[in-house]
Amino acid sequence: MEPWPQGVGILAIECFFPSQYVDQSELEQYDKVSSGKYTVGLGQAKMGFCTDREDINSLCMTVVSQLMERNKVDYARIGRLEVGTETLLDKSKSVKSVLMQLFEENGNTDIEGVDSINACYGGTAALFNSLSWIESSSWDGRLALVVAADIAVYAKGNARPTGGAGAVAMLVGPQAPLIMDRGVRASYMKHAYDFYKPNLESEYPVVDGKLSVQCYLSALDNCYQLFCTKTEKILQKVQGNQLIDLKYLDAIVFHAPYCKLVQKSVARLLLNDFIRTPEIERSTKYPLLKNFRNVKLEETYSDRDLEKALLEQSKSMYEEKTKPSLMLANQVGNMYTASLYSGLVSLLVNTEVHELAGKRVALFSYGSGLASSMFSLKISSNKDAGSALSRLVSNLSHIKVLLQKREKVSPQEFANVMDIREQNHHKASYAPVASPSTLFPGTWYLDSIDELHRRKYKRVP
Asked: Are 122 and 116 in contact, with CB atoms under 8 Å apart?
């Protein structure tokens, strides 16, 4: 039997987001809510959005084209292509099938994979499937391409500021600079109606905000506990008994519906560590939690006093291990399936290569309904200028530049764009009204929809 390919993980990564945004502080004034409700309460600064010139197909075409071009990857080298998204344009035809246009032009039609759908978890399902393909007997030696993309829009009201849009593409294969840890993936799946989209005539979801937060944190608790158990079991074979806690991880990246929830999630992991720590050591390790020694995890989701103490106790850990990964979440908003992986991109572009080398990163993926997983990767220790890690990070140098090049629009203009999207959702035939001139160079965009709902696309030079 041939051995597994070694060092399987992410070889290259690309991120794309809209060229326009609305300022959250201006949106507060427009919505006539208290100052800081969106910027402090949610932790959001800006929100990217798409006009009617961009849809889920165009976002995915753009991010795939840019990854292939920027990394000089031959389209013939791809043997599997999977898309994770919850932004549906068709109940039958996959986004992956639309992306095949790019590969057909280059003579490659032998590509496995279709779409994975479950709220914000689809990108992770696509990644796991691609990793499994490369480590299976079906692998033919080519690379896998994972695409996670969504347009997150909400009806007028409290949820609208938690929207956003974006896409991430990841090239997966052996000898990668971001190597997936084996045997530690921990999942938690459960039936819940916390966020769902039953109305196929609308882009907007049905959201139970309080339940959604509780489901997210409960999933985090369960995944983290199992992740620690599996990691401890593996480490025991190598170095004997060892209690795993957050110190084992150099960085923690989360699915980010909004940044404030991520900060609370770091605090939540600290609570798990606190409960797992022998009582004799608790007061030394966690002095701010001395009044909560008898706490029961399942009874803590609405305990504000405990949350306040946890946020203070975990503050330095959050600043060090997680805040660098929130740049795109803060500046663009929730990308749904792409959110977790835009966090990974943010971490990579906000950290020097020599500081990244050798680090272990945990990732928590959550999709309502619900599906969740925690897994980890090890960053290559090779930090030389010509290394795969240096190339991967260097090919992300445009991210901060593009953030600065975006166009700010007024809340009223943003509201007008949302009205146009709402009024013309699934309309056929349809000619988009927004100008392509506002889009970044290299962006694919929707040119027209005919009477049979067939979509045609063009690309900005």
From this structure: yes
Q: Are 376 and 360 in contact (CB under 8 A)?
A: yes
- H helices of 182-338, in order, are 209-239, 259-276, 279-285, 304-313, 315-321, 327-331
CA of residue 182 relative to chain centroid, distance: 21
Q: Is the pLDDT of residue 1 over 50?
A: no
Q: Give the pairing type, strands 9-16 and 164-173.
A: antiparallel
Catalytic residue list contains 426: no
Rounded to a whole number of angstroms, the distance between the first and last alpha carbons of the chain is 49
Average pLDDT over residues 332-351: 98
This prediction's pTM? 0.97
Contact between residue 341 and residue 170 where contact means Cβ atoms under 8 Å apart: yes
Q: In a 3-state reduction of DSSP, which class is residue 413? A: helix
Task: Note if the bond before 270 is cis, omega within 30 degrees.
Answer: no
Q: What pLDDT score was predicted for residue 2?
A: 62
Phi, psi angles (nearest 5°) of residue 81: -140, 120
| Spatial distance between the Cα atoms of 259 and 224, rounded to a whole number of angstroms | 19
> Which of 28, 54, 82, 86 is labelled catalytic?
86
Annotated catalytic residue 255: yes
Amino acid at 56: I
Tens digits of per-residue pLDDT, 148-187? 999 999 999 999 999 999 999 999 999 999 999 999 999 9
What is the chain's alpha carbon radius of gyration, rounded to the nearest angstrom? 22
For residues 61 and 460, the answer to whether their CB atoms sit within 8 Å is no
Which whole number is the average pLDDT over 263-278?
Answer: 96
* Side chain identity at residue 86, one-letter code: E
How far is CA 434 from its chain centroid?
27
Residue 120 is among the residues annotated as catalytic for this protein:
yes
328 and 345 Cβ atoms separated by less than 8 Å: yes
Catalytic entry in 28, 54, 228, 255:
255
Catalytic-labelled residue, pool 120, 223, 228, 259? 120
Interstrand relation of 143-152 and 164-173 (parallel, antiparallel or unpaired): antiparallel
